[in-house]
Structures are given as structure tokens and as C-alpha cells.
Amino acid sequence: MESNSRILPKLIAIVGPTGIGKTALSEQIIRYIDSEIVSIDSRQIYRNMDIGTAKPKPYLLNTIPHHLINIVDPIDDFSITDFLQSAKASIEDIISRGKTPLLVGGTGQYFWSLIENWTIPSVPPNPELRKKFEQIANEYGAEHLFEELKSIDVEATKIIDSRNIRRVIRALEVGITGNKKWSELRSKDPVLYDPFIIGLTKDRTILYGNVDSRIDQMLLEGWIEEVRLLKNNNLDLTYSSMSSLGYDEIYRYISGEVSINDATEKIKINTHRFIRSQYNWFRISDTRIHWFDTITSQCNYEQEIKGLIEPFILHN
After folding, report:
1. Adjacent-strand bridge partners of 188
2. Topology of 127-184 in CATH?
3. Would you state the pLDDT for residue 299?
4. How far apart are CA 34 and CA 234, in angstroms?
5. What pLDDT, on the 0 to 100 scale, is given for residue 316?
6. 282 burial level (CB within 10 Å; 0-12, 13-18, 19+)
7. Which of 72, 158, 162, 247 could anchor a disulfide with 76, C-beta 3.0 to 4.6 Å?
């Protein structure tokens, strides 16, 4: 692909809902393409949040170069602007060493902001407004705040997780103090990359069952203790990191507010809802994505992907 007579650097991407098998496929691709992985996951950036964010196992992190995993502490804020700067720097570094960047993850906003090269205008923070909305959240709950956002920017509520209080407050802040709504604050510059995008999918009912089993396994592997350590280090539910799937529910279990059975059931329900929101970002009808159904593919989809990727990388 060319832009302004310039050949764009190639990259490969694996996208799709949580629990679909993106990490396993990346492990396969690394075997025949000289690649390094750039994580497109807004939760795996945090240190000490390993089990609940389903990070690649330590043996993979130790044997395959990964970028944008374990780069900030859970107390830190990390914006989409921070992601774009970090991701572009990592991609440039990988390409400079003659390798192909392999993007892997399911955070749609991160992914498309990078692929479509969004420009994110800066709207200065408003401390007084933030304090007001934080008080509303504390008194009436996150859902009340989410309804406030819906009244001024309904499109933002289709993208932002209602439990991510800091992001909801930021969208309210932008909508009230800026010249445009939060959902309108992205323009696109000329694209920087030529991507081959692989999308993985499967029957939704089967996928829900798979992620439910994975949640049970994560609890057995020590997820509760992981959250307990965060809580003991003064991480509370006001931090953006703690809006990650499951951390709120386990935190409340540890605090004695709910039973482990109720917490587990809510994690599964919220994960199903999250999967549905991911399909809003990665649509089956999007022709930019080469979709593979991991259940109904007529042949070995991994071999089919290999047959498409290799000529894509070799073709100039």
C-alpha cells in the first residue's frame, strides 16, 4: 500500500473478543514470521494485574518479545494518547530491526486509533468539575454518572465501560467544557501502516461457555489473592485500573459486601456484556478484517492464515 508515493510498513494484527484464542494464534505466527508482539490491551499494561487480565504466561513473555505489557503501575493513569505514543514508538523500534510488528488484543479503541491514525485533541482538565462528578459517583453510584453522560453524549456510552468512572468523568468533562462531544474528538491523519488484520470469532454461546470456564480457572489460579494484594497496597475502586473486568466484584467480595458465588456470577455476566461491546468495535461486516471462525472453519484456519500472511509480508 502506498500513501503520497511512500510505501507503508507492514504489520499483522490479531483482533477479536476476549477468550477467543488470540494469544495462542500469535504464538503460532511467531514461528514462521520474524515478529515481536505489541499488546493492544488496555488492561495488560498494568503491573501486578496478571491473572485477571489474562496476560500471556511467563514462559511466553520470557521467550517472545512483548511490548506494552507491564509498563505502568495500577495507580497510574494511562490515556489513549499515552497508548498511541507508546505503540508507535514500539512499532518503529521493531521495524528498525527488520522485524514485523504483530499487534494482538481486543481493545477496539486502542486498535483503530492506531490503525486509522487518530488525532486526539487536548481538552484541559477541570478539577472542580471532576470533584463534583466524583462526589456524584460516590453518593449515587457509577450507573447514575453513566446516565449523566448518556444525556449529553449517547455515542460515548456505546464505547466507554460504565464501570470506568475516571473515563466517564473525562467524557463528561470534555462534553461540558470542550467545543465538541467526547465521541467527536477524533480526527484521522494519513495512515501510517499497511495492516493485515485477522479476526477470530466463534458461536457466541460457545464463547460464553469458554470464558465462563476460564473465569473459574482464573479464580483457582489465585485471582482473589491478586486483588487482595492490590487492596492491601491501597488500591481502591476509584482507580481506573480497578475497573478492569472482575476486579470490582472480587474487591467487593474481599470487603465482605458480596459472596464469592454472587461475585463470580456477576463477573461472567459482565464479561458476556463486554464481549458484545467488543463486537461493536470489530464487526463481522468489516471488510478490512479477515475473519476466521475457530469452530466452523472448513480447514485448519491456522494454516489458512499462514498461507495469507506469508505472501502479504513478502509482497512489496
Report:
1. 118
2. Histone, subunit A (1.10.20)
3. 58
4. 42
5. 62
6. buried
7. 72
The three grid cell numbers given for residue 118, joined into one nine-digit string: 487518530
Task: List the grid coordinates of 68.
Answer: 506494552
CA angle in degrees (0–180, nearest 5) for 245-248-249: 90
For the chain, the domains span 2-120+186-314, 127-184
Q: How far apart are the first and last CA of the chain?
A: 8
Give the type of residue at 38. Answer: V
Contact (CB, 8 A) for 168 and 162: yes
pLDDT for residue 266 = 97
The 10s digit of each residue's pLDDT in 172-203 is 988 888 878 888 777 778 999 999 999 999 99
Q: Which CATH number fits domain 2-120+186-314: 3.40.50.300, 1.10.10.10, 1.25.40.20, 3.40.50.620?
A: 3.40.50.300
Q: Give dist(CA 122, CA 139) in Å, integer.
A: 29
